[in-house]
Write a structure and sequence with these properties.
By secondary structure, the protein is an alpha/beta fold. It has three domains: about 240 residues, 4-Layer Sandwich (Glutamine Phosphoribosylpyrophosphate, subunit 1, domain 1); about 200 residues, Glucose-6-phosphate isomerase like protein, domain 1 (Rossmann fold, 3-Layer(aba) Sandwich), CATH 3.40.50; about 140 residues, Rossmann fold, CATH 3.40.50.10490. It has 19 helices and 27 strands. It has an eight-stranded antiparallel beta sheet, covered by helices on one side. A seven-stranded antiparallel beta sheet has the order 5-6-7-8-12-13-14. Strands 19-18-20-21-22 form a five-stranded parallel beta sheet, sandwiched between helices. Strand 25, helix 17 and strand 26 form a beta-alpha-beta unit. Helix 3 packs across helix 4 and helix 7 packs antiparallel against helix 14. It is globular, with a radius of gyration of 26 Å. The protein binds 5-amino-5-deoxy-1-O-phosphono-D-mannitol (M6R). The site of 5-amino-5-deoxy-1-O-phosphono-D-mannitol has 16 residues, from helix 9 and helix 16.
Length: about 600
């Protein structure tokens, strides 16, 4: 979704802002803009619809704007068409205040009407412009920018991260946050703001995360933060421990492929520190064994691929714990008057830690008394900070919109959480626990094995890419896996595809199977292998072309029925989706490549979905 970057220092701001915006491109956007301020040229605002290269050309790669202080923005349209006028930064009527904004101002209509009544003319259809105009209005009335900022904050409702540049304040800009991420970066003789650390990691790894209601005055020689009441706040700094190369392509054509290949290492980093003496140990958890024994129910909430992790988790955790586990879409959970209380553990899963629906579900569950444990990739993100407990996936920055390594690390961490609880509850026999741990340790190497065999998948994509309707079928864990396989394929290749529980096909959907329909049949879940085989026979009898996935032990049997069989190494049942997802990711990647799609930045999508 939208991205913000801001810089003040001694270098020219234009190129630094453009570089930062380029690093935020992966979040998804449809237009971009910058505002740069200099004593001689004043406030210069340039913005353009489309890819960043359009803006970059407009400002001669940043050289056409002069000044050592500025703010920049990539916009993902919510209020008003993606066009030059609706792009950020937005200016006040007198063109002395420029604002960039992530989030939504919910009461913008009434504020706009109020300001129009005061004779103020609006240029855009956006909610953001009201912030610039209201700020200028109060600034004119009070003569003090900070007072005006606080007045605006009292008036606006919704979610916002704001960067504010004023022609009367040439050495500082202002940053504000409420329910939308914003961090402060401390450089050598320069300072930054960013909605995402990737925008500034090239310049500094020293950052602090703004809290809701805080206002920061950002100058080259330091940043002063104030709380919602205007009292100074001492911010804790932290050091980002990954470097700039982690957010670059490193020789790969696409971030998605690089991130697919990084999965064994990401899983290793996530698993190994939490394995001691062949047991899962979570030093970071505060929940006591007695509290775990007292849990009556587990509810997993998440969106998109993180929800699919939760779908696998339902099967695996119920199997390990013999306790009820329910997985819900966060966007549904928040409106269904959910049955959770203090005896419920709510597990919140999110790569970005900023997904608005997931955040809202978390807050609702917490207000009902549930204990919140989140599985998050982005350190210091809103979901991480608002949870009772956080387990971080150590996947590193994930840039491609289509998640791969974050999915894999979330999945393995959820499995480990299940094992940890099972150990305390004594719900898994010691021999089985032992064998699962053995497979867990072997998982990264087995993932590497899968990644060594991409040629066949590439070939299959080259013969399948013209299909325009594809079904993924599977039972139990394979159904949950199919949900992810199908989402991956549709989001980057734009092919219509659906995932079905294989046994459900005959209740309606099988009518869509005809000559040449492509069916991806997932048969990694050994206990139901024969049943899945029957479903393959059913769709083949109706003319479907089938590509199937199974483990080494069942490959020969499956080849008697299906010509195109992909395989994964044998492993414990609970880890089948962890291996099985990799061929599906690679298949999606090559299908999208064949179709000439924008793999890392699929149309209409954003990496971090911070609107409802
Ligand atoms: O950051 P989150 O894990 O909360 O994001 C949730 C979904 O938006 C995300 O998983 C989305 O479905 C993926 N981009 C799909 O690849």
């Amino acid at each position: 979704m939208c991205g913000i970057v801001g810089y003040v220092g001694s270098a020219q701001a234009g190129p630094i802002l453009l570089d930062g915006l380029e690093r935020l491109e992966y979040r998804g956007y449809d237009s971009a803009g910058i505002a740069v301020l200099s004593p001689e040229k004043g406030l210069q605002v340039k913005k353009a619809k489309g890819r960043l290269k359009v803006l970059s050309a407009l400002v001669d790669e940043g050289r056409a704007v002069e000044g050592t202080i500025g703010i920049g923005h990539t916009r993902w349209a919510t209020h008003g068409q993606p066009n030059d006028v609706n792009s950020h930064p937005h200016l006040s009527q007198d063109s002395r205040i420029a604002v960039v904004h992530n989030g939504i101002i919910e009461n913008y209509v009434e504020i706009k009407e109020y300001l129009i009544g005061k004779g103020i003319r609006f240029r855009s259809e956006t909610d953001t412009e009201v912030v610039a105009q209201l700020l200028a209005y109060h600034y004119r009335k009070t003569g003090d920018l900070m007072t005006a900022v606080y007045r605006v904050l009292h008036r606006i409702e919704g979610a916002y991260a704001l960067g504010i540049l004023c022609a009367d304040m040439p050495d500082a800009f202002i940053a504000v946050r409420k329910d939308a991420p914003l961090l402060l970066g401390y450089g050598q003789g320069c300072s930054f703001i960013a909605s995402d650390v990737t925008a500034i990691i090239k310049h500094t790894r020293e950052v602090s995360y703004m809290e809701d209601g805080e206002v920061a005055v950002v100058k080259a020689d330091g940043i002063q933060v104030y709380d919602a009441l205007g009292q100074p706040v001492e911010k804790e700094r932290c050091t980002i421990d990954w470097d700039v190369s982690a957010a670059e392509k490193g020789g790969y054509a696409h971030f998605m492929f690089k991130e697919i290949m990084e999965q064994p290492e990401a899983v290793r980093k996530t698993v190994h520190p939490r394995l001691k003496d062949r047991r899962v140990v979570f030093d970071e958890l505060k929940v006591t064994p007695d509290e775990i024994r007292g849990l009556q129910r587990i509810v997993i909430v998440a969106c998109g691929s993180s929800y699919h992790v939760g779908m696998v988790g339902k099967y695996n955790l119920e199997r390990l714990l013999r306790r009820p586990v329910e997985t819900m879409l966060a966007s549904e959970f928040r409106y269904c008057d959910p049955l959770v209380d203090e005896h419920t553990l709510v597990i919140v899963i999110s790569q970005s830690g900023e997904t608005l629906d997931t955040m809202a579900a978390l807050r609702q569950a917490r207000s009902l008394g549930a204990r919140i444990l989140s599985i998050v990739n982005v350190v210091g993100s809103s979901i991480a900070r608002e949870s009772d407990e956080v387990l971080y996936t150590w996947a590193g920055p994930e840039i491609a919109v289509a998640t791969t390594k974050a999915y894999s690390t979330q999945l393995v961490l959820l499995d480990m959480l299940g094992l940890y609880f099972a150990d305390i509850l004594g719900s898994v026999k010691p021999e089985e626990y032992e064998s699962i741990i053995e497979e867990l340790q072997a998982l990264p190497a087995k993932m590497e094995e899968v990644l060594e065999n991409t040629e066949k998948i590439k070939y299959l994509a080259s013969v399948c890419f013209n299909h325009n309707s594809i079904f993924f079928i599977g039972r139990n864990l394979d159904y949950a896996l199919g949900l992810e396989g199908s989402l991956k394929l549709k989001e980057i290749s734009y092919i219509h595809c659906e995932a079905y529980a294989a046994g459900e096909l005959k209740h309606g959907t099988i009518s869509l199977i005809e000559d040449g329909t492509l069916v991806v049949a997932l048969c990694t879940y050994a206990p139901l292998f024969d049943k899945s085989l029957s479903n393959i026979v059913e769709v083949k009898a109706r003319g479907a072309d089938v590509v199937a996935l199974t483990d080494d032990s069942h490959a020969e049997e499956l080849r008697k029925t299906v010509g195109n069989v992909l395989t994964i190494p044998d492993t414990h049942t609970i880890f089948k989706p962890s291996l099985g997802v990799i061929p599906l990711q690679i298949f999606s990647y090559y299908m999208a490549l064949q179709r000439g799609c924008d793999i890392d930045k699929p149309r209409n999508l954003a990496k971090s979905v911070t609107v409802e």
